[in-house]
Every structure is written in C-alpha cells, then in structure tokens.
C-alpha cells in the first residue's frame, strides 16, 4: 500500500508531502516513511503512533500488550482483534454494520471495557454460524521477515497528538516512538477519545496547523 501511495504522488506530481495518520493510517504512514522517506517532509500521528518495521500487532504482541494493560486498567484492550480472526466474524458483523459502527465510535468507557475490549467479548451473545474467514497478515505476522531490516529511524520532524483514550494512554506511544525519532514533538491530553479529529476538530486542527507552519 505504501507503494500505491508513492505511485499516486508521482503521478500527481506532488513532490514531498506532509503525512497525517490515524489508527491504521498510522501504520501506513509509518511504512511510507520507511520505504519512501524522500517523499515525506513531516509526519503527524493522531492518537496512534509510529510503528517500526518488524513490529506488528501479532498474536504474541497482542497477548503481551493485553497482559501489561490488564495490570494498569484491569481489563484487556485487544479482544476485538482476536474476534476479527475468528471463523464467522465477518458473517456476524456484515448484517449489523450500524451496531458495529456505534460500538467502535462509542465514548462510553463501559462499552470499551465490556463489549469490544475483553477477549471474546465483542461477539459474545450474538454469534453467527461459522464460515471460513481469511487470515490477516498483521495478526499472523506474515511480513515480519520482509520488514526486519528496513530503515526504522525517522529523521523528519514528527508530531504525535495524544488523547484521553484509555487504550492509547496505556500504550504510551511517546515512549515507543522516542528511540526511532530524531525530531519528535508530543502534544498530550487533547480532550477527546480515539476520534480526536471528529470529537475535538478545532483543537486538533489548530495543533496540526501550528506544526505545519513551523519551519522545522
């Protein structure tokens, strides 16, 4: 996908760009900076931070993260990842798109704790008949060998905006990112959950604009 973005930029004659990534977009922005560093002048991450090559949310990493978060928050956070990998997950969610969307955009911490964070919690009580469901490269760490030797250090100015989302707070993205960043700025505690650009658009856009206006 990073190659697709690079091809689109080349076709449009865009030159160097400023990249903004949120959630899975943060992973894509990370790889664009790793594989095509000359295309990106600045990087901005919203609530979800940079991920170095060779690391991913594989089964082993998810179990480790959930164990650590469990000690702090008293509940796990990636149960829905495991649910997505189950047989029949797509068949269950497809007829219930509005319900699924409402759960994932909820700001109610009880929803996070009780519905989609705990292991198996997301689908409990309304299972569909099982059907074959394809494996995902992320969970099964298929790309680990290809990514291991890729450029991990980010030289461009980089901004991380953190929120009050308990899952992101527990992940401590600033600490994860610092070993790979030459020029990292962190703006902490935006009064929003995971979807900061929707929940606090003025505050979020103001932070982004100030970073854009800065020379370095």
In spatial order, strands of the major sheet run: 1-2-3-4
Percent range of helical residues: 40-55%
CATH class of the largest domain: Alpha Beta
Kindly name the structural category.
alpha/beta
- Which regions have little confidence, pLDDT < 50, spanning 5+ residues? 124-136
Can you count the helices? 13
Instruction: Output the CATH homologous superfamily of the largest domain.
Output: Alpha/Beta hydrolase fold, catalytic domain
Write the H/E string, N to C: HEHEHHHHHHHEHHEHH
User: Please, what is the average pLDDT?
Assistant: 81
- Report the count of strand segments: 4
Q: Give the biggest sheet.
A: 4 strands, parallel
Question: What would you call the shape?
Answer: globular
Number of domains: 2
Radius of gyration: 18 Å
- The separation of the N and C termini measures 28 Å
Find the CATH topology of the largest domain.
Rossmann fold
Write the layout of secondary structure elements.
Elements: H1 2-12, E1 17-22, H2 24-35, E2 40-46, H3 59-73, H4 79-84, H5 89-93, H6 97-104, H7 109-116, H8 137-140, H9 144-147, E3 158-163, H10 166-171, H11 173-177, E4 184-190, H12 196-199, H13 201-213
Parallel strand pairs: 1-2, 2-3, 3-4
Helix pairs in contact: 1-2
Describe the model.
The protein is built from 13 helices and four strands. Helix 2 links the parallel strand 1 and strand 2. It has a four-stranded parallel sheet with strand order 1-2-3-4, with helices on both faces. With 216 residues, the protein is of the alpha/beta class. Helix 1 packs across helix 2. The protein has two domains: 117 residues, Rossmann fold; 82 residues, no CATH class. This is Bifunctional epoxide hydrolase.
């Amino acid at each position: 996908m990073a190659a697709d973005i690079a091809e689109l930029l080349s076709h449009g004659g865009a030159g160097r760009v400023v990249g903004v990534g949120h959630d899975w977009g943060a992973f894509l922005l990370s790889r664009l900076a790793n594989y095509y560093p000359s295309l990106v002048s600045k990087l901005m991450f919203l609530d979800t931070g940079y991920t170095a090559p060779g690391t991913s949310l594989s089964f082993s990493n998810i179990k480790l993260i959930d164990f650590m978060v469990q000690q702090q928050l008293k509940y796990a956070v990636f149960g829905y990842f495991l649910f997505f990998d189950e047989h029949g997950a797509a068949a269950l969610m497809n007829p219930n798109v509005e319900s699924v969307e409402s759960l994932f955009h909820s700001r109610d911490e009880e929803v996070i704790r009780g519905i989609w964070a705990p292991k198996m919690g997301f689908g409990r009580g309304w299972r569909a008949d099982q059907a074959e469901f394809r494996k995902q490269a992320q969970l099964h760490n298929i790309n680990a060998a290809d990514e291991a030797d890729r450029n991990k250090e980010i030289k461009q100015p980089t901004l991380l905006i953190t929120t009050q989302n308990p899952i992101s707070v527990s992940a401590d993205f600033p600490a994860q990112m610092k070993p790979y960043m030459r020029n990292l700025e962190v703006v902490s505690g935006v009064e929003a959950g995971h979807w900061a650009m929707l929940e606090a658009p003025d505050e979020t856009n103001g932070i982004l604009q100030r970073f854009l206006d800065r020379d370095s």
